[in-house]
Amino acid sequence: MNAHGTSKDYVLRVATPADVTAIAQHRVGMFRDMGMLDGYDAAALEAGSHAHLTRALAEGTYRGWLIEYDNVVVAGAGVILRPLLPRPESPDGGEDAEVLNVYTAPAHRRRGLARRLVEHVLSWSRAHGLRRISLHASEEGRPLYEKLGFVPTNEMRREWNTEDA
To answer: What dihedral angle (degrees, nearest 10) is formed by the CA atoms of 129, 127, 56, 79?
Structure first.
């Protein structure tokens, strides 16, 4: 298949609290690759992500999956579970999920790992009764997400700079 072996050499597994460092590093790598770290402290982002993910993994509000090659984590994805207020399509409320931290190490890209992870996330979400799942797509990731059935929504956002706060 490639210089790294066959697809069966890539093992998908559930993330555990022991994986928090790898997930935090992936998060920094994701933002770096999207060009969003200019002027920001990558070490502070990694430390903050590590602290948040440690709590969220322990509480079960973050669920993650990783792909290993030769016992080294090379790709990952996760979801943050959020309470869903009652709405027309879900009058009892429930939960929805936001997909995040979809990342593949550069040497392992273009091997279908992100697709495999997101397909797994979608399957897991359906099996757990989640009716809605969302994400923020990078330009590079958008074609994959569209192929998997994601569509743009009416979401809007307002942000403040630290000087505005």
So the answer is: -90
pLDDT one-digit tens code per residue, 62-116 = 999 999 999 999 999 999 999 989 989 889 998 999 999 999 999 999 999 999 9
How many other CB atoms are there within 10 angstroms of residue 142's CB atom? 12
Cβ atoms < 10 Å from Cβ of 10: 20
DSSP output for 89-110: TBTT-EEEEEEEEEEE-GGG-S
The pTM of the full predicted model, rounded to 2 decimals, is: 0.89
Integer Cα distance of 109 and 107 in angstroms: 6
User: Which residue segments constitute the domains of the chain, with CATH numbers given?
Assistant: 9-147 (3.40.630.30)
